[in-house]
């Protein structure tokens, strides 16, 4: 009976975590460049049950009864880095990455991902697909979080004002057609090593290099000025999955309540001395 309590409790915890993930996805349905998280439920390793007495062994020729499931858990959340739709804004500082050909890992079959490279106030690199950029008081091109957007030479890009023109290669020109720099696009070959830090920022914890997509023969892409990449969250599908998670949570809750009532009766009624 206690094993049943643990299994039902594990199911409730797994569905609660799934619900939290789906809720976060839905809340970012309008966040530019947001990549929806995905995860799956898996069972814990089964336990092999054996009979303690000898009657079972004599009747069946073995003391093994069978396997017992020990509950489920939700695997690690991973962003789904597929290409989002383009939304035109008309703002000069809005820039979207239109990803084309990228390298593929031969072992995992996973495609690399292209990201803007930013520099935070501590001098650490962070990555994002949110191309809703701004210009700070000093004229530097920054992300929506205020982090410097890095150029191909690894330095922040100073554009002075919003009267800029950005071509498909990321070259930035002033109103007088002066070349101000080129926006760097980093190639992350193992995106499973990217960790979300909130506000559309990603931290890379992998050991592989993060080369630039500029003049990279293995990569094709375009930067589109005046556009942002929309979130990859499917609102209707997410709502359906949230309802499914809620129903599964309630089913496990009823099982837990049934076990609780059975234990209460066993303690208060069956075990009572008359």
UniProtKB/TrEMBL annotation:
Annotated Pfam families: Flg_bb_rod, Flg_bbr_C, LlgE_F_G_D1
NCBIfam families: FlgEFG_subfam
Top-level division of the source organism's lineage: Bacteria
UniProt record, GO biological process: bacterial-type flagellum-dependent swarming motility
Any one of the GO CC terms: bacterial-type flagellum basal body
Keyword Transferase: no
Residues annotated as domain Flagellar hook protein FlgE/F/G-like D1: 116-172
This protein's name: Flagellar basal-body rod protein FlgG
Protein family membership: Belongs to the flagella basal body rod proteins family.
Alphabetical list of PANTHER family matching this protein: FLAGELLAR BASAL-BODY ROD PROTEIN FLGG, FLAGELLAR PROTEIN
Annotated Flagellar basal-body/hook protein C-terminal domain residues: 224-268
UniProt KW Chloroplast keyword: no
Organism: Salipaludibacillus aurantiacus
Keywords: Bacterial flagellum, Cell projection, Cilium, Flagellum
């Amino acid at each position: 009976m206690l094993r049943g309590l643990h299994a039902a409790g594990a199911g409730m915890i797994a569905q609660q975590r799934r619900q939290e993930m789906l809720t976060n996805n839905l809340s970012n349905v309008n966040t530019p460049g947001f990549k929806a998280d995905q995860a799956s439920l898996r069972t814990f390793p089964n336990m092999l049950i054996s009979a303690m007495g000898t009657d079972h062994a004599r009747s069946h020729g073995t003391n093994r009864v069978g396997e017992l499931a020990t509950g489920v858990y939700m695997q690690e959340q991973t962003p789904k880095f597929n290409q989002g739709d383009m939304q035109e804004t008309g703002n000069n500082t809005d820039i979207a990455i239109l990803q084309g050909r990228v390298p593929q890992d031969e072992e995992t079959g996973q495609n690399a991902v292209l990201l803007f490279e930013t520099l935070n106030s501590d001098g650490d690199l962070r990555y994002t697909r949110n191309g809703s950029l701004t210009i700070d008081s000093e004229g530097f091109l920054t992300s929506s979080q205020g982090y410097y957007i890095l150029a191909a030479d690894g330095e922040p890009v100073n554009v002075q004002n919003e009267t800029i023109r950005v071509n498909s290669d990321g070259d930035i020109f002033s109103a007088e057609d002066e070349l101000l720099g080129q926006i760097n696009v980093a190639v992350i070959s193992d995106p499973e090593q990217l960790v979300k830090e909130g506000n559309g920022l990603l931290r890379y914890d992998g050991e592989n290099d993060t080369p630039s997509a500029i003049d990279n023969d293995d990569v094709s892409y375009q930067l589109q000025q005046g556009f942002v990449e929309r979130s990859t969250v499917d609102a209707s599908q997410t709502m359906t999955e949230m309802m499914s998670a809620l129903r599964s949570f309630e089913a496990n809750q009823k099982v837990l309540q049934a076990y609780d009532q059975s234990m209460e009766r066993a303690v208060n009624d069956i075990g009572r001395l008359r």
